[in-house]
Design goal:
eight-stranded mixed sheet, 396 residues
């Protein structure tokens, strides 16, 4: 069986590695002329690290990443801390793997190296998807330069504006949520000592929140600040922003948040896209993976992790199958993943209100709200089902 993957991002590469490990031939077609990721931080919870270990890349990634001691909330104006959950050894004891904060290019490069170790010529650059076709016996991926590539199965891992998805179902791109995320990477030495801790911090306030955590051997502090009530007119999903606009969006927030904004050498604005879970993502020999299938707001920190999970479950479903069995195998993959990923999408959307509640306006109402929404019981209910899952062994 030959599997074609449109998209060489984290999900596409994870799927390629998992398939190649199982003896399934793979070709990855990536639109970029150079295989690289946007510099940013991502969080890899234990359920993601289980898969990365099975792919043979966990130890390499762990050596490049950070293992925070805890996650905590801080109130937007006073800075008062509120515990979220303990990380470090307690997470390993509970789920078998740590909770890592990862520099996205490190993860992307580690997965690309693994794919190339398994098949040196698997990744094709400057090969963006323009469309796709299928018959009872195979698939064709049509590339932007006019090339036509034949295979037995096609995986659309081509992101929120998926060409593969839109070819199959018509225009289905997510819409702008009204929220913009400001992203910055701050050299750790630019921050005072008390702001360099091995902690994942979420500043929460009415209408916005900001997240920080260390990356890349704790040499970088990742900064992401989300604000409601924005408009978006750019043709692309991101653009360079200004310190002045970001400071205006977070006027009145704690001086440490203001410092993080000022110390970011560059601030990129990202339009946050949103869509309800789609009811199906497989047609015949073509299916979707990652953001193409289940685009989500980033408020459960599971977007990259769920793409990695998708790749492993997909590979397990295709392992040992004949080309005649391919369509049925893809339906098994969708059935195994769609309830979990739909719950993730809805959970991330629900966290928007929890991070941005108007109850956070004053310390008195915030204390009451945090006790109600972010005490031990609701935190366990929201996150335990995510972290306990194992894509390597989940029923198919």
């Amino acid at each position: 069986m030959k599997v074609l993957i449109a998209g060489g991002g984290i999900g596409g590469l994870a799927a390629a590695a998992a398939l190649l490990q199982r003896g399934v031939d793979v070709e990855v077609y990536e639109q970029a002329s150079e295989l690289k990721e946007v510099g940013a931080g991502i969080q890899i919870s234990p359920n993601g690290n289980k898969v990365l270990d099975a792919l043979g890349v966990f130890q390499t990634l762990k050596s490049l990443s950070c293992d925070p001691e805890r996650k905590e909330f801080r109130l937007w104006n006073s800075g008062k801390p509120w515990p979220m959950f303990t990380l470090g050894k307690s997470v390993i004891e509970k789920y078998g793997y740590p909770y890592l904060t990862v520099y996205r290019p490190d993860l992307h490069q580690t997965l690309a190296d693994r794919v190339r170790a398994l098949k040196p010529d698997a990744i094709h650059l400057s090969s963006g998807a323009a469309g796709c076709e299928q018959s009872a016996s195979g698939v064709t991926l049509v590339l932007r330069d006019g090339r036509r590539v034949a295979g037995d199965v096609l995986i659309g891992a081509d992101g929120v504006r998926s060409v593969v998805r839109n070819t199959l179902w018509g225009p289905t791109d997510p819409g702008f949520s009204g929220m913009v995320a400001w992203r910055g990477l701050i050299p750790m030495e630019n921050l005072p000592e008390h702001m360099r801790g091995s902690v994942g911090t979420t500043w929460i306030g009415p209408g916005g929140h900001a997240v920080t955590y260390p990356l890349h051997h704790a040499t970088i502090m990742n900064f992401v600040a989300t604000i409601e009530g924005k408009t978006w007119t750019a043709a692309t999903g991101s653009e360079l922003g200004t310190t002045e606009e970001c400071l205006a969006d977070f006027a009145g927030w704690h001086p440490e948040v203001q410092m993080l904004i000022r110390q970011s050498p560059r601030l990129i604005k990202w339009a946050l896209m949103q869509r309800d879970p789609i009811p199906a993502w497989t047609q015949g020999r073509i299916t979707l993976l990652g953001d193409a299938a289940h685009a989500t707001l980033p408020f459960l920190a599971q977007g990259a992790v769920h793409s990695i999970e998708d790749g492993m479950v997909l590979a397990r479903c295709l392992e040992g199958q004949t080309t005649e069995q391919a369509a049925a195998a893809l339906q098994r993959y969708e059935s195994a993943r769609i309830d979990r990923t739909s719950r993730m999408v809805r959970g991330a959307t629900a966290n928007t209100e929890r991070f941005h509640s108007r109850e956070l306006a004053t310390e008195v109402s915030a204390e009451r709200y945090l006790g109600q929404e972010w005490s031990a019981a609701p935190i366990f209910e929201r996150y335990d089902w995510l972290y306990r899952y194992d894509a390597n062994t989940a029923s198919l």
